[in-house]
Write a structure and sequence with these properties.
Elements lengths: L1 H52 L2 E7 L2 H7 L13 E6 L2 H13 L17 E7 L2 E9 L4 E3 L11 H11 L8 H8 L7
Antiparallel strand pairs: 1-2, 1-3, 3-4, 4-5
Helix pairs in contact: 1-3, 2-5
Length: 192
């Protein structure tokens, strides 16, 4: 009888422990999900702050390392490339104001899925204050990925449409045949 009571007590302790572990796990998952859901809003706020605090913003359309690797796959020197600048534009005061207005209007729903492709950014947004580069945001529209070392949060989904709109208004292109463009603009790298 005593052994049955002892086993019943141990079973209750084990059950209580499992319930506590499940509850803790569920609370942690809910907290993480709530924190992740707020990530897009925090990212948006950081972008707005970067725009507001910048006295110069330069948008650049450029080649990437992957363009050269794909354009010249048989050349061992293909990874050693010099970036080609296709278009570079410093935002005017009016363009900066429009960029800020578009960022403010952007929905802040957090990006919750990410492409498995290798990020291949062809556009950069460089933020300057008092003549110094304060941060640089690179965007790959093909993969829907942004790289902004000053911000480790997940961005809002709407950032890609907002940045593409900005790029296109400036006469740049969010989509192009980047590899063909490299073949036209660069001479083939010399093998070693």
């Amino acid at each position: 009888m005593a052994s049955t009571l002892l086993l019943a007590g141990k079973f209750r302790q084990l059950t209580l422990l499992l319930v506590l572990l499940f509850a803790t796990s569920s609370l942690t998952a809910c907290f993480r999900k709530e924190t992740e859901a707020k990530s897009g809003a925090a990212y948006k706020a950081d972008l707005i702050r970067a725009i507001e605090q910048s006295d110069k913003i330069i948008v650049t359309e450029h080649s990437s390392e992957m363009d050269f690797i794909q354009a010249y796959p048989d050349s061992p020197a293909s990874a050693q490339h010099t970036e080609i600048i296709y278009h570079k534009h410093a935002l005017t005061a009016q363009e900066k104001e429009k960029f800020l207005t578009d960022a403010l209007a952007m929905a802040d729903e957090t990006q919750d899925a990410f492409s498995a492709c290798i990020s291949d950014p062809h556009h950069s947004f460089s933020f300057y204050h008092a003549g110094k580069l304060t941060s640089k945001l690179d965007v790959c529209f093909q993969c829907a990925q942004v790289e902004w070392p000053q911000n480790r949060r997940a961005p809002p989904w709407a950032i890609y449409d907002m940045l593409a709109k900005t790029v296109n208004v400036l006469g740049m292109h969010d989509e192009r045949d980047w590899v063909s463009l490299v073949r036209k603009k660069a001479s083939a790298p010399k093998g070693k």
